[in-house]
Design a protein that fits this description.
Number of helices: 1
CATH class: Mainly Beta
Keywords: Signal
Organism: Billgrantia antri
CATH superfamily: monomeric porin ompg
Number of domains: 1
Radius of gyration: 24 Å
Order of helices and strands: HEEEEEEEEEEEEEEEEEE
Helix content: under 10%
Protein name: Transporter
CATH topology: Porin
């Protein structure tokens, strides 16, 4: 495998959502042998973790190698909506009122991720995020008659996010034309402040923003990677299971929240990686999360009511660039462009992994 293909292969292995895979079980650099009478085969350079797209794991870390990866992610979502409430008699004759809403959401996430190669086919990962959020909402709400009033709110929140632990295991060697398969298991904790942990006023309106989901989650998934010179194709399918919880929180004197069951999600992603030269590569892909309804139990003046949210379809186009500075350091930039109404407009992530041998 020449240097270009080696880089391409490592890059594509780092493109399956929260996944990874170890390189084929070949001799280590320096231990590669060649048939008698032929020049020694040049060993490909060892490479650290390559991550060109946000929230996408990379090639499994070799046994005894530790990778520390600082990252910074920026996410922006915007809604500009004009809603008509009334009766449409003709296409040009509307009887009713209009309401306008504009909302902007910005999220900054700084994280430190550590990955350790336990064996050549097993990797453990720990991610510790710090979250800063800022929301701006401006709305015009109609009232009785021709009157209306404006709502203008600015909220922010910052603090420790939800810490995540992930295990990845390479299931096969990818021989005889088979793709590589990797099994993955991710656990998300509740170390961040959830939506029911933040402060609210007497009317139950939030006064700050949450930095975590507030619910434990487990995500099993499987990744397939297929090298096909000069590209490597990847695909992933996973199921995100959000555990229900009896919140038992009183929002107002009359309203109390009971059990909440967050919607689970089916997660799909696929794409392709391509090496430009031995140091640089780019990736192109697509991911889609199908999120189910959230069931919320609440008690209004003692009356039990169950409410369901709508389902969500979060689809994004993935673009990524990676550049290998040296054997132990690379720079990775990922961009997500939302293509469905429920997806963030843009997500930009910068990651710089540093690798070293610890045993």
């Amino acid at each position: 495998m020449n240097k270009i293909n080696f880089l391409l292969f490592n890059t594509a292995l780092g493109l399956a959502l929260s996944q990874g895979v170890a390189a084929q079980d070949t001799a280590a650099p320096g231990g590669i042998t060649s048939p008698v009478g032929q020049a020694p085969v040049e060993a490909p350079p060892e490479q650290p973790e390559v991550q060109a797209i946000a929230d996408i794991g990379g090639v499994l870390t070799p046994r005894g190698r530790l990778v520390l990866e600082p990252s910074l992610q920026y996410s922006h979502s915007g809604v500009n909506r004009l809603t008509f409430r009334g009766v449409e008699i003709l296409s040009t004759l509307l009887i009713g009122v209009f309401s306008a809403e504009e909302a902007e959401r910005d999220v900054w996430t700084a994280a430190l991720t550590g990955r350790l190669g336990v064996t050549d086919r097993l990797e453990m990962e720990l991610k510790v995020p710090y979250v800063y959020r800022d929301d701006t909402v401006r709305a015009t709400v109609p009232t009785v008659g021709d009157d209306s009033f404006d709502i203008d709110r600015d909220l922010s929140g910052n603090g420790l996010g939800d810490i995540e632990v992930t295990a990845r295991y390479q299931l096969n060697r990818g021989q005889n034309g088979w793709p590589f398969f990797v099994g993955n298991l991710r656990y998300k904790s509740v170390t961040g402040d959830g939506p029911f942990d933040i402060s609210r006023d007497a009317d139950g309106i939030e006064q700050e923003l949450a930095t975590g989901s507030g619910f434990h989650a487990i995500e099993p998934s499987i990744t397939a990677l297929f090298p096909s010179d000069p590209a490597v194709f990847f695909a992933n399918i996973g199921y995100l299971y959000n555990m229900s919880d009896d919140v038992d929180t009183r929002l107002t004197d009359e309203l109390r929240i009971g059990e909440v069951d967050p919607g689970d999600a089916v997660r799909l992603s696929f794409g392709m990686a391509y090496a430009i030269n031995p140091r640089a590569s780019f990736t192109l892909g697509f991911k889609n999360d199908f999120i189910g309804k959230t069931e919320t139990e609440y008690f209004d003046d003692g009356t039990r009511v169950t409410q369901s949210s709508r389902t969500l379809n979060v689809g994004s186009l993935l673009l990524g660039w990676s550049y290998q500075l040296n054997q132990d350091v690379s720079v990775n930039l990922g961009l997500e462009l939302g293509v469905t109404d429920d997806a963030p407009n843009t997500v930009l992530t910068l990651r710089i992994p540093f690798g070293s041998n610890v045993f």
